[in-house]
Amino acid sequence: MVYTFRVKKTKSAKNSMEGLGIPQDLSGSTSNGDSIVSDSSSESEISDRVESSTLISRADQRKNRKVKKERLLRTVFVGNLPASMTPKSLHKLFVHALKSAAIQPTDCKVESVRLRGAVPVTGGTSRQARKRSSIQHDFAAGDSHTQIGFVVFTSPVGVPAALKMNGYFLPKGGSGDGNHIRVDVCSRQKASYNTRNSIFIGNLPFSANEEQVRQVFAPFGKITSVRLVRDSATGAVKGIGFVEFEDASSVPLAIRRGAIKSDDSNNQQGLVVGGRQLRVEAWKSIKKAKDPAKRREKSQNTRGISSGSGRVNSIRVPTNLRGRQARKKFVKQALQKRNKRKQMEVTDGSTKVLKKRKTAATGVARNPRKKIKKATR
């Protein structure tokens, strides 16, 4: 069986021929300039060549995934870098960290560094616009802009030494201002921050930065890291953030102080950043807070129903009940059962004693909550 392929003389055609294993010396030419390739190989041989090329590509994909996973284990994330930071300065910073940890260059070196998080003044989101903004240090937020970086080592031995740089203070020139950098692992399999030692911050001004938040919460204990959620398009703070303390005892102190509202008459001062009163709560996940399904379920479960006595009693309504009439019927039955139980309870001081009724026939005390099956003859 002879197969004939009619293709144009292009570079892509040449590559496709080589990928199928078709030798170029079998190709000919016609009068109209097209090339004719004839192969007298059997159909099974051609299919074997295609399958072998597919298997090689899949093997390469598995190999690339393994290489990326291994590279991720020796990569660290660096946050809250100043706008003036350059790749060369970042490289020198972590070379000094390896030397401070007494790690020899033969054991581990800095393989590469890269900076990200640039927001151009023009507002462009293309890769070239971000790269140009990073090189020229022309950011939309000006000097208050912060960058993020990634440092890759030649060996995982350098990762613990790099993590010791978490909270390191980078001064700006000769002034006392600067940034406390945040260093974390890049592996997504585990979270390096402790949620029990963290608090959630709300009502932050859009122009706030990590250093302002750190100064406000520093009196409550040693701070491990400060994370502010920023908009990827503008670089501005979205109004929320997280603060992680070294000790869990600092969390209730910060929450208690955040509950105090600023009042000039009583000389009470709450937690204020940029003229705005902060909202401080225990750590909570952003995804859970934004989930509309869970909000809907919570509102249905905690729906208040009036019992006619002036109080509002909370009744859990199942979410699988369809229709308003079905929900009303369920609430009515639940209220009847609740009122019946209350009638059988008598309050005696701080304890509740359940009245036991006696039957007229036997005189045996029984619990009214338990249903007694009727005797069948």
Automatic annotation (TrEMBL):
<feature type="compositionally biased region" description="Basic residues">
    <location>
        <begin position="367"/>
        <end position="377"/>
    </location>
</feature>
<feature type="domain" description="RRM">
    <location>
        <begin position="74"/>
        <end position="188"/>
    </location>
</feature>
<feature type="compositionally biased region" description="Low complexity">
    <location>
        <begin position="34"/>
        <end position="44"/>
    </location>
</feature>
<feature type="region of interest" description="Disordered">
    <location>
        <begin position="335"/>
        <end position="377"/>
    </location>
</feature>
<feature type="compositionally biased region" description="Basic and acidic residues">
    <location>
        <begin position="285"/>
        <end position="300"/>
    </location>
</feature>
<feature type="region of interest" description="Disordered">
    <location>
        <begin position="14"/>
        <end position="52"/>
    </location>
</feature>
<dbReference type="GO" id="GO:0003729">
    <property type="term" value="F:mRNA binding"/>
</dbReference>
<feature type="region of interest" description="Disordered">
    <location>
        <begin position="285"/>
        <end position="318"/>
    </location>
</feature>
<dbReference type="Pfam" id="PF00076">
    <property type="entry name" value="RRM_1"/>
</dbReference>
<dbReference type="InterPro" id="IPR035979">
    <property type="entry name" value="RBD_domain_sf"/>
</dbReference>
<keyword id="KW-0694">RNA-binding</keyword>
<protein>
    <submittedName>
        <fullName>RRM domain-containing protein</fullName>
    </submittedName>
</protein>
<feature type="domain" description="RRM">
    <location>
        <begin position="197"/>
        <end position="285"/>
    </location>
</feature>
<dbReference type="InterPro" id="IPR050502">
    <property type="entry name" value="Euk_RNA-bind_prot"/>
</dbReference>
<dbReference type="InterPro" id="IPR000504">
    <property type="entry name" value="RRM_dom"/>
</dbReference>
<feature type="compositionally biased region" description="Polar residues">
    <location>
        <begin position="301"/>
        <end position="312"/>
    </location>
</feature>
<dbReference type="InterPro" id="IPR012677">
    <property type="entry name" value="Nucleotide-bd_a/b_plait_sf"/>
</dbReference>
